[in-house]
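Hi team,

Filling in the usual template for the complex we talked about on Friday. All components are listed, including any nucleic acid strands or ligand strings, so the model treats them as one assembly.

SUBMITTER: L.P.
PURPOSE: interface mapping
COMPONENTS: two
RESIDUES: 223
SEQUENCES:
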Amino acid sequence: DGGITQSPKYLFRKEGQNVTLSCEQNLNHDAMYWYRQDPGQGLRLIYYSQIVNDFQKGDIAEGYSVSREKKESFPLTVTSAQKNPTAFYLCASTTGVGNSPLHFGNGTRLTVT
Amino acid sequence: QQPVQSPQAVILREGEDAVINCSSSKALYSVHWYRQKHGEAPVFLMILLKGGEQKGHDKISASFNEKKQQSSLYLTASQLSYSGTYFCGTEPPGTYKYIFGTGTRLKVLA
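RESULT (copied from the run log):
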């Protein structure tokens, strides 16, 4: 079955370290997204990409970086410049055509101490 | 820019009805509705398109008022499984920048 895989499910890091969250999809979707969700809060857009080798900043891109070298993969790096990195991170994708909804991975819960 | 949802939270008894609204300061051309259970990813419920067409697959209905730039989600005869946080999602035309509303927490009690 096609889907989006995020790994790992839980991630623990020390403050000051960069960490990369994985997102892989086999849905053949063109567009991919990263969202951040804090406890009891909504989904805030970090970065998004419509095609390979192209991506745009979302509303809270500071302290994060991404790459889109392959259609299937859209990894997110949380850098040490991110002030409060502890959060639930969700990756999503869509065909980008015909008002298609987003499909989500199961998320990665990052804890930085 | 973020669509505003109302109410922020609602508590129901099983069998009661609820309405969740999603209002945007910009024109809406399509709206998606999602439900998120605690600790899980959001799940797509329904799409509302300009012109009133709706597509969904659950016992939940919705409406889309282009003039008011608002969409409403109707949950009738609520079940315990309806509990969760509901989000509307939309993409301003030509941007690919998909954003979500502020969310509505719904709890159904037995």
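MY TAKE: Chain B is about 0% helix and 55% strand. The radius of gyration of chain B is 13 Å.

Thanks, L.
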